[in-house]
Amino acid sequence: MGEPHAVQPDQKVIEDLMAFGAHDFKKCFQCATCSAVCTLSNNDFAFPRKQMIAAQWGLKDKLMGDPGPWLCFYCGECSKNCPRKANPGETMMALRRYLTSAYDWTGLSRLMYSSAFWEIGILALVSAIVVALFTLPQSFGFGLLSRSGAAPLHTVMLDKFAPVGMVDMGDRIMALVLSFFLLTNAARMFYYLTRDQKIPARLYITQLPSLILHAATQKRWNGCKDSEATKNWIRHLLLVTGYVTMFTLVVVFLPWFQVNDSSIHWTSFLGYYATTVLVGATVWMLIDRIRQHGEMYQFSHLSDWLFPILLFLTAVTGIGMHLLRVNDLPMATYVMYTVHMAIAVPMLVVEVPFGKWAHLLYRPLAIYVAAVRDKAAQCSSLEVAPAGPVPA
């Protein structure tokens, strides 16, 4: 028999992880303290120890087929208790960045996570296109400098400046494009998480409520040991409800939300809720990150800053536009509308399918697949071995 094949560390994966924020994982000497103190880790999906091993060896296939990094909510107990200061919590965060780029077939996630120039540059490019649509002379009959001069300056008429039908159509096209990229990337993730598993098809159906529950509530977060876990979970839940509310208003109810007159409509109250939650939650998050309050805020990647900042600016410019509109200030309203769209559209087009917003789908999907795999393992262990021949 020949000599056993030696497994060599994949230096490229190791370099990528370090570029994505995992600076200390090489210090790990596998004492398993991290897994022992984590209240979410269990025998079926023990983390972060297993992920620390795979990271040290650069085992790309093992990492891509592991739901473990997504089952972690970064409470920081592992990093606080690590005797080697290997920061397993931040390594898990870096792994999520790495996996987001690995599942993305376009390569944009990798460019954005590995280069501040590319992330900011892509956002700026999309923003410039949006500004151009509303400011450059054109034959569409809308915008600040439209050839027909359709946007009146004596009173606010948003439908003349930005016809709701055209904006609505643009929103729906954008939603379809975003869904295409996000869902195809999620399909790649699902493939890697299940390709080596023998899972009965019925389990995918019976465990579907798990996907829906965790996508809607992220309730698993509240199971963390850290004293800040409940606060972080509630804040995150409010943030998601605010984002979903605003997204629904813009994509589904735009004809009732973007109105010409300055009166208050039923959609206004939903808008007030969304903007209040978005401003409050993002300011709270940014203050914690600036003060490095809590273990999860000890290290910051550019994507960690852009995520709340873009949300905050989207909400603030939306509030500003509303105040200018109800006070019937036409030019100021049109300018603020353009600024608002120049922030909101890049955030949606770039960050949702390729950046940190993708976690909203990837994490529930990983929890769902982990539940399916766990049930499949239980079913397999309960199978009774065939009986031997019956004696005469």
Question: Can you lay out the helices and strands and say which pair or pack?
Answer:
Layout: H1 11-19, H2 33-37, H3 49-57, H4 60-64, H5 68-71, H6 77-81, H7 88-103, H8 108-114, H9 116-135, H10 158-161, H11 164-194, H12 201-206, H13 208-217, H14 229-251, H15 254-257, H16 266-291, H17 302-326, H18 330-354, H19 359-382
Write up this protein.
It is built from 19 helices and no strands. The protein is mostly helical and 392 residues long. The chain has two domains: 93 residues, Alpha-helical ferredoxin (Fumarate Reductase Iron-sulfur Protein, Chain B, domain 2), CATH 1.10.1060.10; 266 residues, no CATH class. The N terminus and C terminus are likely disordered.
Short structural description:
This protein has 392 residues and is an all-alpha fold. Helix content is 66%, strand content 0%. It starts with 10 loop residues before the first helix and ends in a 10-residue tail after the last helix.
Primary descriptors:
392 residues, mainly alpha, Fumarate Reductase Iron-sulfur Protein, Chain B, domain 2, 2 domains, disordered N terminus, disordered C terminus
Number of domains: 2
Main beta sheet: strand number and arrangement?
Answer: none
The shape, in one word, is elongated
Gap between N and C termini: 45 Å
The chain-level mean pLDDT equals: 86
Secondary structure: number of strands: 0
